[in-house]
Amino acid sequence: SLDITSQMALPDARVRAYGMSLPRMITGAKAKVAASPAATETFRTNIDLTSEAGFFQVTLTGQPNTDPDLYVLRDANSDGTFDFASEIVGQGTGPTENEVVTLSGFTAPGKYQVWVHNSREVVPGLSEATFDLKIDIVSGDSLELRNAPDAIVPGQPATVDVCARTADLQGATGPARGIIVVGWKGAVNAIQVPVTWWPRLPISVFLPEALQGFDLMAPLP
Ligand SMILES: [Ca+2]
After folding, report:
1. What angle do CA 156, 161, 163 make, to 5 degrees?
2. How far apart are CA 145 and CA 78, in angstroms?
């Protein structure tokens, strides 16, 4: 359980949970050099996000002497295509072989695509870049909150019970990750508590020890 104590009234406090999720790994992907990210040589992979995500990060690890660029697009107008000019939601276009894109706040459900554009031959003649992708998205409803308060009274601890529906995680090789978000008006994601689940017996959900009971001194900006 998670104990929340505030020194000030938070009448519209909201506690939400995201997860549990495991990152998706893609290894040994390849892209040939192309002038434009919209070219067919660009690597693309689909992400179908069916519920809001509390965390959304794509990490690209490339090989030396390559310069892949990373883009995350969302089919915002739901026309079934990803338009490079108008539907980019995140990008990493540094001059080296590694890139990371982290979407801020909460990510709306929808159709997403990750693009990797091999932007140039760093070494003449090396026209193909090889890279790994880690797609780390925390979403889903297998992390359940019971007794989540809709108001927090000063000095009075509110206890939230955290349960993982482990049936949803059968076969997972773990660790799976969740996030509990405590927020209030004007600071909807003020406090984020990570939760980790390991597939071993007995089934356990771990909250970080330092955060099992914590005081809210004042809302963050
Ligand atoms: Ca579109």
Report:
1. 165
2. 32
Helices (H) then strands (E): counts for the chain: 0, 16
The environment of the single-atom ion ligand 1, i.e. residues with CB closer than 5 A, is 75, 77, 79, 81
- The answer to whether residue 51 sits within a structural domain is yes
Q: What torsion do the CA atoms of 104, 108, 109, 113 make, to the nearest 10 degrees?
A: -50
Q: Say if residue 76 is in the same domain as residue 106.
A: yes
Q: Which residues form the domain of 41?
A: 23-137
* 221 residues of the chain, pLDDT tens digit each: 677 777 777 778 888 899 888 899 999 999 999 999 999 999 999 999 999 999 999 999 999 999 999 999 999 999 999 999 999 999 999 999 999 999 988 999 999 999 999 999 999 999 999 999 999 999 998 888 887 777 778 877 777 888 777 676 677 776 788 898 888 877 777 788 888 877 665 555 566 654 544 444 444 43
Q: How many angstroms does the Cα of residue 102 sit away from the middle of ligand 1?
A: 21
Buried-exposed string 150-181: b where 16+ CB fall within 10 A, e elsewhere:
eebeeeeebebebebebeebeebeeebbbbbb
Paired tokens of 216: 């809210």
Question: What is the 220 CA–ligand 1 centroid distance (Å)?
Answer: 36
Contact status, residue 12 vs residue 185, Cβ threshold 8 Å = yes
If you measure from the C-alpha of residue 177 to the centroid of ligand 1, how many angstroms do you get, rounded to a whole number? 30
Q: Which of 82, 106, 137 is the last residue of a domain?
A: 137
